């Protein structure tokens, strides 16, 4: 299995020392920036517009970030923090299909709640400076690694049969297929409820597009 790496967090500097205030103001920036990035794109959005959308002056904005790229980085980091916080408690269920299904469900529910953030991240990540981009890509691999360990655990427990490489590819499958709910929302949400999408996608990920084996068939 791929060795788990620990990412070195990219630092976004602030002249403010109050951590709770930093979190509050940056949360406002993220919400405002995501709306603008979705409507106009990263490059056509200005920091002044982000400040206005967030509800404070450009001077206040620069007390909490230094560049527009800092705001984009904060959007990406917020996504990975949210996914990690929701899925980490499932570590004790590692090695069970139930735990894997719960992880997939929580992951897609997070995408549903943060669909604009996910879309912005994948559309605009290329605009990040090198150090921030490296951190974001490492966090992406860590997220895939979580599912890889779950798949490998299920294989070791005899619940499924996967090689190490198959578990690795399967993890990336889960990451990408789950994000369809954000990228193709323009059509999927007209045809499926969130629950239907999660259940059907989970079955396809675990049993293939042909569906569950019929009684008497070999898995």
UniProtKB/TrEMBL annotation:
Protein name: Transcriptional regulator, TetR family
Keywords, sorted A to Z: DNA-binding
GO molecular function: DNA binding
InterPro entries for the chain: Homeodomain-like_sf (IPR009057), HTH-type_Tx_Regulator (IPR050624), HTH_TetR (IPR001647), KstR2_TetR_C (IPR041490), Tet_transcr_reg_TetR-rel_C_sf (IPR036271)
Keyword DNA-binding: yes
SUPFAM superfamilies reported in the protein's UniProt record: Homeodomain-like, Tetracyclin repressor-like, C-terminal domain
Keyword DNA-binding among UniProt keywords: yes
Record's signal peptide: none
Source organism per UniProt: Bhargavaea ginsengi
Pfam families reported in the protein's UniProt record: TetR_C_24, TetR_N
Domain HTH tetR-type: 23-83
DNA-binding region(s), chain positions: 46-65
Top-rank taxon: Bacteria
PANTHER family xref list: ACREF/ENVCD OPERON REPRESSOR-RELATED, ACREF_ENVCD OPERON REPRESSOR-RELATED
């Amino acid at each position: 299995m791929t060795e788990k790496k620990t990412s070195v967090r990219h630092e976004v500097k602030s002249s403010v020392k109050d951590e709770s205030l930093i979190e509050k103001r940056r949360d406002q920036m993220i919400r405002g920036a995501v709306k603008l990035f979705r409507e106009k794109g990263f490059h056509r959005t200005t920091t002044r517009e982000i400040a206005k959308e967030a509800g404070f002056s450009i001077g206040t904005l620069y007390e909490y970030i230094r560049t527009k790229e800092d705001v984009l980085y904060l959007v990406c980091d917020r996504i990975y923090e949210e996914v990690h916080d929701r899925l980490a408690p499932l570590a004790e269920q590692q090695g069970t299909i139930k735990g894997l299904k719960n992880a997939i469900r929580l992951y897609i529910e997070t995408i549903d709640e943060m669909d604009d953030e996910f879309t912005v991240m994948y559309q605009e990540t290329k605009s990040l400076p090198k150090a921030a981009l490296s951190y974001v890509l490492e966090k992406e691999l860590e997220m895939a690694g979580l599912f890889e360990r779950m798949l490998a655990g299920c294989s070791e427990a005899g619940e499924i049969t996967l090689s190490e490489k198959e578990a690795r590819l399967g993890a990336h499958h889960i990451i990408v297929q789950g994000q369809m709910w954000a990228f193709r929302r323009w059509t999927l949400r007209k045809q499926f409820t969130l629950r239907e999408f999660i259940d059907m996608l989970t079955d396809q990920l675990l049993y293939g597009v042909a569906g569950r084996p019929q009684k008497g068939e070999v898995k």
